[in-house]
Design a protein that fits this description.
The chain is α+β, with helices and mostly antiparallel strands. It has twelve helices and five strands. The longest helix has 25 residues.
């Protein structure tokens, strides 16, 4: 799992410019690649102190009887615990729509894996299903044709392999499930162009969907010990390095993105979601950790696009004390040679000071 997220960090770093170049939904702010990269980087770096010396563990192959593996070391050999730690860091430092949805995905995927020392086909199917359901439900107005559709397709494919093999937990079946998940994710990415009018008009696939495809292929690569599939992105519309930056000539997006972490009761969280839905778009609210505090309140990660930050910030502060609150302009320079065109910069605190 540590190798997966490290590989995903490197891969998204290499692809962030191209992902930014085709990012036009839900707003054409050209920062999906940067947001995904920074969020995955937070997850990967949260695991830097996790031990990776497995020399004392038995070497496991596809033919190794499961009883030889032995019981897990709860300190360093719990797949769910490792991913939960990474997910916590990701949700606290998530950037943008895509980063927040991936952080939600990671936190949810960790839950069915808790207490298990290795990944298997049944566990992969359960983790992907839990993760895609949680990601869909985090958005107030989820839309097909986005990375949500890619998550769902991968989960359905893994579940089909698991069902076909009767819950077999061998490494061989795990490999089949990972292959099927990536293949289905690729098909879903291609289909995004036909699902969203904005993508169809621009003749591009969804940037967040491509990012999720890359992340899933990194998981396959890390688990199976194989190289990334370089040909995976061949032919995706808008993804050739010679294709123009999609934002050239497009109108600038107005409004801002507001994000924060805040502790709220379930009632206050429902109130905030409803009020933010009335104020703006792209509302995402997801719990940070599953356990309430002594007063029954939960930590939440909040994300919204609004025309004016003041009412949203006022609402947030009326219901609790937010931390890590940020306000970022959605309108970024369209010249890809400028630093901000990659989605870096352009962020201010709620009082208008540059961050």
């Amino acid at each position: 799992m540590k190798r997966w997220l490290g590989k995903a960090e490197t891969t998204l770093g290499n692809h962030s410019d191209r992902l930014n170049a085709i990012n036009i939904f839900p707003v054409a702010d050209g920062d999906t690649g940067t947001n995904l990269y920074l969020t995955v980087r937070a997850a990967a770096r949260a695991l830097q102190d996790v031990p990776t010396d497995t020399s004392s563990l038995p070497q496991v192959t596809a033919d190794t009887p499961l009883h030889v593996v032995g019981p897990p070391d709860p300190a360093q050999n719990d797949v769910g615990a490792v991913l939960a730690k990474a997910g916590q860091a990701a949700i606290e430092q998530a950037r943008g729509n895509s980063g927040t949805l991936f952080a939600v995905f990671l936190c949810a995927a960790a839950e069915p894996l808790a207490g298990h020392p290795r990944l298997s086909s049944p566990l992969l199917a359960a983790a992907l299903n839990r993760a895609q359901i949680r990601a869909w439900s985090a958005l107030s107005d989820p839309v097909p044709g986005t990375m949500l559709s890619v998550m769902e397709a991968a989960a359905r494919a893994a579940a089909a392999v698991d069902a076909e093999h009767g819950g077999d937990d061998s490494n061989h079946t795990l490999g089949l499930a990972l292959d099927a998940a990536v293949e289905a994710a690729l098909a879903a990415v291609v289909h995004t162009e036909d699902q969203l009018e904005a993508l169809h008009t621009a003749h591009v696939v969804d940037a967040g969907g491509v990012g999720m495809l890359l992340i899933l292929d990194c998981l396959r690569s890390a688990v199976l010990g194989e190289e990334l599939q370089d040909q995976l992105l061949d032919g995706l519309h808008g993804y050739d390095v010679h294709d123009p930056h999609i934002h050239e000539g497009m109108p600038r997006d107005e409004g801002v993105e507001v994000m924060c972490t805040i502790t709220l009761s379930p009632l206050d969280a429902a109130t905030m979601r409803q009020r933010l839905d009335e104020m703006g778009e792209s509302v995402i609210m997801s719990q940070v950790g599953g356990d309430p505090d002594a007063e029954g309140a939960y930590r939440w990660r909040v994300h919204v696009h609004v025309p004016d930050p003041a009412p949203a910030v006022e609402l947030i502060r009326s219901l609790g004390e937010p931390s890590d609150i940020s306000v970022s302009e959605l309108a970024l320079p369209r010249d890809p040679r400028e630093p901000d065109a990659a989605g870096v910069g352009g962020s201010t605190d709620p009082d208008g000071h540059e961050r």
